[in-house]
Specification:
This protein has a domain of 122 residues. 8% of the residues lie in helices and 43% in strands. It has a 22-stranded antiparallel barrel. The chain has a 5-stranded mixed beta sheet with strand order 4-7-8-5-6. The termini are far apart. 53% of the residues are buried. It is found in: Cell outer membrane. Keywords: Cell outer membrane, Membrane, Receptor, Signal, TonB box, Transmembrane, Transmembrane beta strand, Transport. This is TonB-dependent Receptor Plug Domain. One of its GO terms (cellular component) is cell outer membrane.
Length: 1023
């Protein structure tokens, strides 16, 4: 038996060998993602690299207009000194502005050429392929959700720590959140103007503020672009779906003797998405990989056999596509599309017990599953594999040079993203009680009821007769920035400054169509015959428009019945978020020491975050008949407490907070000699006052040493970082549901309670300690085209904000955790007993691992024309341990759990051949084999220990990794006109099952490609 390790069946040896070969190949053919730096207005950017690795910069070829753009690689050491280049350098991850400054925090950079060659409709996809980004959300994730509001939201997660712990910036400035969690949507950025993306893979709160626990992703735009460039791209999957069309254009021009700079850009992107499959195991298109893989719970923990069984073709035996009597003497009676009864075919040779509990002998009572049999009612594949996405983006920037060194500017970004997905087919129901006298019940079943002396039976169905649910979020962003940047003489030198004001608004509207009101559905399925007509049994429901429906077979409800069950105005949520930022930063070199000038950066920032969310009255529980008279009329069947919809019960609420912070950062050169090399000390501190939680302090201390050994650099940094609770965690709109028979541990009895899901305004910021140690070997004289780096990281986060269930809240207080005791009142002396479900600072996360990054560049390899660049990155996650902080629970290590987002190994390797008039791109993406979860103990029958809650036993704890091969290329057709192509997932690698303990979507789009082979072609114009 093995705890937390993957089973290795014989068939996996080849996969394991491929993985070992790939690791070896990637170690040689990796790199190309390097540090880069931004320059101030009016200055020319030197091609330097803060990682010690080469950075790629686009340069116009002086040979003539027919030449394509090319990549040039220059090491930082060969860049011109300040006196020659005249350029100061801004490094993401630090506020220091100084030529030749080397930051200790590793930063990976994706340049404009790599973005273009990867040929994605959304720049998000290119960045998310970096191995250090794990668990990012995009159009392929969250599609099984109705209420989350994150469908189609493109946001990054560094180190697998979640999108809320990664700070995403645009030109070093914050962006208003596109969700109440505060994360922005990268789809709303002006993507054609992005000249590079800096990814800081370490804590940067001391430099950039809250949320930079996992790191920073900073999009740098071309603020001095001149000319016209355009891009038109089309794509389609191998299965004929997810048709995409992308159109981009940008224009820039200088006026008034090159002092006035105007830039405009516009984009339109349409991605049809991948629709849901049907009932059963029919995946969309010709995809044949879905097989309802599920972890079946035997419910037995101590017989020497595993408790959980990994099985394909799981069958839920409580419902079928067109209806199943699931308990009692008629159990096992199913109905076909015409409403005719027939004996249901249970899997596992199951035999219905026909008792009141509805068990099936030979199947698995815990969870209610068989294997095989009639799978036509399964609903798991009925979820969109990718949300449809339509985005429109307009951007403009105007800058005016007051003189050669100082600019004032204003920028506006107006963008909109519409997405849509199907979270599940129909609206599955089980445990319904149907009267035998219901006139829709077939006569033969009514006679069987009489013969068995029963008047009602338990019933379940997938509700295939109902239209499929459709969730349609729409996000609109309005962002305005005005500021000034430049340098002024002060205290014996030039000091750079950056002052700006930003106002951002995000409007999110979520509409849900084709979804039932549960009280109306429950009334409509209970029918009687009255005066010869079939009507709803409930007279109150009849008086308010109830139309009965026949749920025996495939009879589509009438238009009148659907209008009653699923009113046109379904669940709706309107959210308005605003962000205001005033920021001022300066940096300079006030004096020099023995090894060089001392650099200082300091600044202040004030920020205000606000949101207001309004849910529809049927979901929220507002009094019917207020401002929603016409759209949501009163109905005595519906609860004024809300939660009337099958799903999507959006709530109303509001919240705000403001932040005032200041920082100081310095770089002190310690060594500068041929004998000892060059070394510097970089330190920063920040004080931040939150209006909700008081003042916190963050800091970092690090340094680099360019050793006397040719090309060898060492670096190290340690920091204290924070993440403040977001608007949702602080001020979540309340959701109240009635929970009967709630266990009261204080009386050892039960009580009916209201469970109120609310925010917790008493939350404190999460606190993290981030340490990184690195070594860089860059461009030695004996191999000038080679660079490699290795960086170890260790992150510990305490006070992690996590939600508890109602029972956990009460049980924790009962066991002595006083922090939760004020969240409930079970006495009922002054009001209805209640438990407030909210988040607390109880959990912790510990993760560690290392990054490898390398590149090798050759000119005329093997005597052939052109330049060859071999580059790539790899990340190893040694551990990723989450501790809930709850008594009697065991921390869980998610490193290598491929059901999540942190595989043991993740690689990206890229080979680019630039032949002048043509380019060829080969790209490999790979992650290693893993487990379903380390909490499981893998064993075989007769060899299993006692299964426990913290360490359950399982017969197969293995998830294969995946290898994806992409190919692309371009050719110069005419002056400034380039045609290109790209094929992603060339070998059409299918996703691996990610089994759960239910029949939900058992795939993991956070790691695996769920779309399949994809083709793209396009034209670029750059003048």
């Amino acid at each position: 038996m093995t705890k937390g390790t993957a089973a290795r069946p014989g068939a996996s040896n080849a996969a394991r060998t491929r993985g070992m070969l790939l690791c070896g190949a990637a170690a040689l053919f990796v790199g190309g993602v390097a540090q880069a730096q931004d320059t101030p207005a009016g200055a020319q950017q030197p091609p330097v690299a803060q990682n010690g690795l080469p950075t790629t910069t686009s340069t116009a070829d002086p040979a003539g207009p027919d030449q394509l753009t090319r990549e040039t690689t220059v090491n930082q050491d060969s860049a011109a000194p300040p006196s020659q280049s005249g350029a100061d350098v801004v490094v993401t991850g630090s506020r220091i502005t100084s030529s030749g400054f080397t930051a200790p925090t590793p930063t990976q950079v994706i340049g404009a050429e790599q973005i273009a060659r990867n040929a994605q409709s959304n720049i998000f996809t290119t960045i998310a392929q970096l191995p250090s980004l794990q668990g990012s959300t995009g159009a392929s994730t969250g599609t099984n959700s109705t209420s989350s509001g994150t469908q189609g939201l493109s946001s990054f997660s560094l180190r697998g720590l979640g999108t809320i712990r990664t700070l995403t910036l645009l030109d070093g400035q914050r962006v208003v959140g596109a969700n109440v969690t505060g994360v922005p949507d990268v789809s709303l950025f002006p993507q054609l103007l992005v000249k590079r993306v800096d990814v800081v893979t370490g804590g940067a709160s001391a430099s950039y503020g809250s949320d930079a626990v996992g790191g920073v992703v900073n999009f740098i735009t071309d603020k001095r672009f001149e000319g016209i460039k355009a891009n038109a791209q089309f794509g389609i999957s191998d299965y004929g779906d997810d048709e995409t069309a992308l159109f981009q254009v940008a224009w820039g021009k200088s006026f008034a003797n090159d002092r006035l700079h105007l830039i405009l850009s516009g984009e339109y992107d349409s991605e049809a998405g991948v629709p849901a499959g049907s009932f059963g195991e029919d995946a969309p298109g010709r995809r044949d990989w879905y097989r309802t893989t599920t972890l079946l719970n035997r419910g037995i923990t101590n017989d020497g056999a595993p408790q959980y069984l990994y099985r394909d073709h799981a069958q839920a035996y409580q419902y079928t596509k067109y209806g199943l009597i699931s308990a009692g003497p008629l159990q096992g009676t199913a109905f076909d599309v015409n409403g005719n009864p027939f004996p249901f075919q249970y899997g596992s040779n199951g035999v219905p017990s026909r008792n009141a509990s509805g068990t099936v002998s030979g199947c698995y009572t815990s969870g209610g599953f068989c294997v095989g049999g009639d799978l036509s009612g399964n609903v798991g594949i009925g979820t969109s594999l990718k949300s449809s996405l339509e985005r429109m983006n307009g951007y403009g920037r105007v800058g005016f040079d007051l003189d050669a060194d100082n600019e004032i500017y204003a920028a506006v970004n107006i963008a909109k993203v519409n997405s849509s997905n199907q979270p599940n087919p129909g609206a599955a129901k089980s445990g319904l009680t149907i009267q035998c006298s219901n006139p829709f019940v077939p006569l033969s079943v009514q006679q069987a009821c009489a013969a068995n002396n029963i008047t009602q039976f338990q019933y379940g169905l997938s509700n295939a007769i109902l239209p499929n649910i459709k969730v349609s979020p729409s996000r609109k962003q309005y962002r305005f920035v005005g500021g000034a940047t430049g340098k002024l003489p002060f205290v014996g030198g030039d000091w750079r400054y950056d002052v700006y004001y930003e106002h951002g608004e995000n409007i999110t509207d979520i509409h849900v169509d084709n979804i039932t009101l549960t009280p109306r559905y429950n009334a409509a399925i209970q029918a009687i015959r009255l005066n010869g007509d079939i009507v709803c049994a409930n007279p109150i429901a009849r008086a308010n428009g109830c139309v009965p429906i026949n749920i025996f077979g495939g009879n589509t409800p009438s238009d009148a019945a659907l209008a009653y069950l699923e009113p046109e105005n379904g669940p709706f949520q309107h959210t308005r978020q605003t962000q205001d930022v005033i920021s001022a930063n300066i940096s300079g070199e006030p004096f020099a020491l023995w090894a060089g000038p001392v650099s200082i950066a300091t600044g202040v920032e004030w920020r205000r975050e606000f949101y207001r969310v309004t849910g529809d009255p049927y979901g929220n529980g507002l009094d019917f008949g207020s401002q929603y008279d016409a759209n949501y009329p009163a109905d005595p069947l519906l609860s004024t407490n809300g939660n009337n919809w099958y799903a999507g019960n959006y709530q109303s609420g509001t919240g705000r907070y403001n932040v005032l912070e200041s920082f100081l950062e310095t770089n002190i050169p310690l060594l500068n000699s041929d004998a000892l090399g060059r070394a510097n000390l970089n330190a920063a501190g920040r004080a931040t006052r939150y209006s909700t939680s008081g003042t916190v302090y963050t800091w970092k201390v690090g340094g680099t040493w360019d050793t006397p050994l040719d090309g060898l650099r060492l670096r190290a940094v340690t920091s204290r970082d924070v993440r403040a609770p977001n608007l949702s965690e602080l001020f979540a709109a309340p959701i109240s549901v009635n929970v009967p028979n709630f266990t009261n541990p204080f009386t050892n009895g039960s009580v009916n309670i209201f469970q109120n899901t609310i925010g917790n305004p008493d939350l404190k910021p999460e606190r993290a300690r981030n340490t990184e140690l690195g070594i860089v070997f860059a461009r030695p004289k004996w191999l000038p085209g080679f660079s490699v780096s290795f960086d170890y990281y260790d992150i510990k986060i305490d006070g992690v904000i996590a939600a508890l269930s109602a029972q956990q809240v009460v049980n924790l207080c009962f066991s002595g955790v006083t922090a939760t005791c004020g969240a409930f009142d079970l006495s009922g002396t002054s009001q209805q007993p209640f438990v407030n479900v909210q988040s607390f600072n109880l959990a912790s996360i510990k993760t560690s691992g290392f990054d490898i990054e390398a590149s090798y560049q050759m000119t005329r390899p093997l005597g052939l024309p052109g330049n060859l660049t071999l580059r790539g990155l790899g990340t190893n996650v040694r551990k990723f341990t989450t501790d809930t902080g709850l008594p009697r629970t065991t921390p869980i290590d998610a490193a290598g759990a491929n059901s999540g987002a942190t595989p043991d190994w993740k690689w990206l390797a890229i080979e680019t051949w630039d032949g002048g008039d043509w380019t060829l791109l080969l790209q490999q993406r790979w992650f290693s084999d893993g487990v379903i979860g380390h909490q499981y103990v893998e064993c075989s029958a007769g060899n299993c220990p006692v299964s426990t809650v913290n360490n359950p036993t399982i017969d197969r704890n293995f998830m294969a990794g995946a290898f994806y091969f992409d190919v692309g290329g371009s050719v110069n057709l005419a002056n400034k006109l380039t045609a290109y192509f790209k094929v992603d997932n060339l070998f059409n690698r299918d996703p691996e099952p990610s089994p759960q303990t239910n029949t939900g979507v058992d795939i993991n789009p956070a790691l695996y490609d769920t779309i399949g082979r994809f083709y793209r072609v396009g034209l670029r114009y750059n003048f």
